[in-house]
Design a protein that fits this description.
globular, 3-stranded antiparallel β-sheet, mainly alpha
């Protein structure tokens, strides 16, 4: 299974990291095998059958990925992401970014390789300033900005961005004396 679309893989990293209870004020957004299967399906990943024993390693991987987005030392980020790509399968650079994993790889192994490729490619092609915290005052999420202009502000634009826009709208209405 080749992975060579770093925008997709960086988006997957952001989505996985932001399923954490740390982001959702204690609520787990990857609570069971069914949710994990849905997450993999929604991101176009085909892995072997997902078992209950696959969930804890994926949740552990998710907790290892957040510090890579928050990492201020680019060399440490690159070293940790490189280690993820070599965990199973391999990373080849002959024809761009391409990583492969065996068909029997676990979901955590597949996600680890995808995450490593996404982090490394964004670091190389877009730069170290693309790894950011969410700008929402009420969110503790993080994200990898792969937008063309590099001006993304929210980890989940449809959620955090909308909440911020609604709050700003209400504040403007209050300031204008309207309710």
């Amino acid at each position: 299974m080749p992975f060579d679309d770093y925008v997709w893989s960086a988006g997957l990293v952001t989505d996985l990291v932001n399923t954490s209870p740390q982001v959702w004020h204690g609520a787990e957004h990857l609570p069971d095998v069914g949710t994990l299967r849905t997450f993999l399906d929604e991101h176009g990943l085909v892995a072997r059958a997902v078992e209950p024993s696959d969930l804890p390693p994926v949740q552990a991987l998710r907790e290892r990925l957040r510090p890579l987005i928050e990492e201020s030392d680019p060399a440490r980020r690159v070293a940790a992401a490189s280690a993820l790509t070599g965990a199973v399968g391999g990373l080849t650079l002959a024809d761009g970014w391409a990583a492969t994993v065996p068909d029997d790889a676990s979901p955590a192994e597949v996600l680890g390789v995808v995450a490593g490729v996404g982090i490394l490619a964004v670091h190389l092609h877009l730069g170290v300033d693309r790894f950011r915290p969410c700008s929402s005052d009420t969110c503790s999420g993080v994200f990898i900005d792969t937008s063309r202009p590099g001006r993304r502000r929210y980890c989940m634009p449809g959620h955090c961005g909308n909440r911020a826009n609604v709050a700003a709208h209400r504040a403007r209405r209050r300031a204008a004396g309207r309710t």
